[in-house]
Every structure is written in C-alpha cells, then in structure tokens.
Specification:
Distance between the termini: 53 Å
Mean pLDDT: 88
Number of helices: 3
Shape: globular
Low-confidence stretches: none
Strand content: 25-35%
Largest sheet: 7 strands, parallel
Helix content: 10-25%
Strand order of the largest sheet: 5-8-11-14-17-20-22
Structural class: alpha/beta
Oligomer: single chain
C-alpha cells in the first residue's frame, strides 16, 4: 500500500512543504492536519482523527512555521505526535547542495538553494530555509530555524531551539547558545550565551 504524506499545520510554512512534496513526489496524496473544525474540507484532516490513523501508512512532516524566542510551540507539537508513535520524515530539496559527509537527524528540512558543506551536524527537527549556507564543521542543534539567506561560517555552533534571522551571518568559530534569537541582517562575531536576543552584536 502506497503511503500518504501528512503535513502538520496550514500556514505559510506548510504551503512551502506541500510544494516541495508535490515536486519531489508527484502524484502522491498530500493532506494537511489541522485542529480548527471550521476549516475542515477534503484537503484537511482534523487532528483528533489523524491521531487515530495507522502510523505505519503515514509519512509526517512538520508544517508549523518557526517561532523566535525558543520555538517552544514546535517542540510541543513534535512531542504530541511522537508520543503517538508517528515518525517525522526528513525533507531535503533536490535543488539544494548537500555534502555526503554530514550527520542528519530525524525530521530535518532543507529548502531550495541551501548549501551544506563538509562535516556538518544538523540536529533533529531543524530547518534550513531557502538559500542558507552552512560551512564546514558546523554544529546545528535540535529544533533550530535558520532563516532565508543566513550564513553560518566554518566551525560555528548553534544551540538547541535557536532562531537565526534572514540574512544574518555567524562568523567562523562563534558559539551560539540554546534558545537564542538572532535578528535579521546582522553579523555575529562574538559568542552568544543561552536565552539571549541579539539585535546587533
């Protein structure tokens, strides 16, 4: 039996995931999982009904967009579904350039135009948005979101649940702690401790 693809959520991030799936897996059934009964239609399935499905027949993708300041909502969403034995799939655009010598974990998403260099580690449920560059020997933690056009230079590390804004540049060897928010279009040249919000550093 051919598996169906299910996307958690119905916002902009889910729309991008749906487009990627239809490009990579043409003809495959793609359904969005929502909790709002008023918006239920043939394209959607209610969360309570989805949780009753046989998880063996489901490929599940997180379509809930990033949340700065810790990304806690995504952590809770993933926890809810994994407790019901659903496994989130990796989704890597065929239009990205990925070294074969990287370490990836469950549920990662790498969008079109991204480049991931040698000996990079990407933690579970992290997202590299469009046009992201991750240089050699970087470590990206769990539940991170690297926004479009951001650059993480060689040997840098990004802690769990950290949000990197669009166009930001993390310079070589910089260590970013967990639960950090880096605003857009800034250059980070010093280490950033856990829980900080950086508007210019």
């Amino acid at each position: 039996m051919k598996k169906s693809s299910y996307i958690i959520g119905n916002g902009g991030h889910a729309k991008v995931i749906e487009g990627m799936l239809r490009y990579i897996q043409p003809g495959r059934s793609v359904t969005k999982v929502i909790s709002d009964e008023d918006r239920c239609s043939k394209k959607f399935i209610l969360e309570r009904d989805f949780l009753e499905l046989d998880n063996i027949d489901c490929d599940v993708y997180n379509g809930v967009g990033p949340r700065p300041f810790g990304n806690k909502s995504n952590v809770e969403i993933i926890k809810k579904y994994t407790q019901n034995a659903f496994v989130f799939q990796n989704l890597i655009s065929t239009k990205s350039l990925i070294s074969p010598n990287i370490e990836v974990n469950t549920g990662i998403q790498i969008f079109c135009g991204s480049i991931v260099s040698e000996d990079v580690s990407i933690g579970k449920h992290s997202v590299l948005n469009h046009g992201v560059i991750i240089e050699h020997d970087c470590i990206i933690g769990d539940f991170c979101h690297i926004s479009p056009g951001a650059i993480v230079c060689g040997g840098a590390s990004i802690g769990n649940q950290t949000f990197i804004g669009a166009g930001a540049v993390i310079l070589p060897g910089v260590k970013i702690g967990a639960n950090v928010t880096i605003s857009a279009n800034i250059k980070v040249q010093n280490d950033v401790s856990e829980g900080q919000v950086v508007y210019g550093y």
